[in-house]
Design brief:
By secondary structure, the protein is mainly alpha-helical. It has two helices and no strands. The protein has helices spanning 3-22, 24-49. Helix 1 packs antiparallel against helix 2 (24-49).
Amino acid sequence: MDARTLLLLTISAVIVGYAAYTNPALGAAISVAVAVVAFLYLMLKDDNSQR
């Protein structure tokens, strides 16, 4: 991971954290969406590595 990626992730985390702080329902929705995307990424990553 290079510095630009780390900076982008940090800025994104601050924005999402602020949105979750100001609106807890939005924070819960974002958390569920991140969990689903992470799960799909892990499933597809494992599927591609077996080919």
